[in-house]
Amino acid sequence: xxxxxxxxxxxxxxxxxxxxxxxxxxxxxxxxxxxxxxxxxxxxxxxxxxxxxxxxxxxxxxxxxxxxxxxxxxxxxxxxxxxxxxxxxxxxxxxxxxxxxxxxxxxxxxxxxxxxxxxxxxxxxxxxxxxxxxxxxxxxxxxxxxxxxxxxxxxxxxxxxxxxxxxxxxxxxxxxxxxxxxxxxxxxxxxxxxxxxxxxxxxxxxxxxxxxxxxxxxxxxxxxxxxxxxxxxxxxxxxxxxxxxxxxxxxxxxxxxxxxxxxxxxxxxxxxxxxxxxxxxxxxxxxxxxxxxxxxxxxxxxxxxxxxxxxxxxxxxxxxxxxxxxxxxxxxxxx
Length: 335
Fold this sequence. Notes:
By secondary structure, the protein is of the alpha/beta class. 37% of the residues lie in helices and 12% in strands. The longest helix has 25 residues, at 121-145. The relative contact order is 0.19.
């Protein structure tokens, strides 16, 4: 396993060429709004807009290629694609965001170009969602120990799909225990929150192997949240990681330049998106914001080509590689 140098960059002027991005910095003296967003959520997981509502929103922007990447779920993709048919020129890529864990850090992976009928895919996603439900139930019980009594059935109603902490946070705010969802995370549900019950997760290596085994690409999402990023990225690159998020509204020009350099040095596709949930927080960026920089259309072509290679490999394999839900194989020093 190698360690990736994630800090050095040869790009001293912090500019990115028009061939590698789209957005306001593409054209000197002009504005070119983003046309690609590869990281969006709906009510099929923890987003607040239905797939149809999300598509209607992005259809009014400059975006022409978007990916639905709900957590552990493809249940919103069919509706989103049907809604997109009413908007010629708008393409929806089926994707999934998968939460993994190694050591003391969470590592989120995104798979693009999902075949929702791939053998083993839906069974494994259902298994992951079951784990989310058990952890959420445990969190609700732990909240009761701290005098916060929210109704489990109400949490499920809010979720409407894959249940998670954001739905518990909304129920807490609705019942008046906290000011808003952000307050709930800060006081109770965050990484070290007094009421959080962690769910079992696969390792990052197992996540990459699973995505590939069902014919999907695997990219590293929001790398800024990964502890020990250079080491984690090193063993994921060795495993065949396809891409890394480079273009995100929260990244400044310097951050994008560093991430673009890492992507180029390691043969990774530079992707990205808004990670939009429609939570309404002050710092949330709406997809298609003309002041943001998105991934280039060429990244979509590269992802599609990589997915085609993994699909071809899947057809020659006997069965998908179902990761062990409790971590297990394939994570260096995971203890």
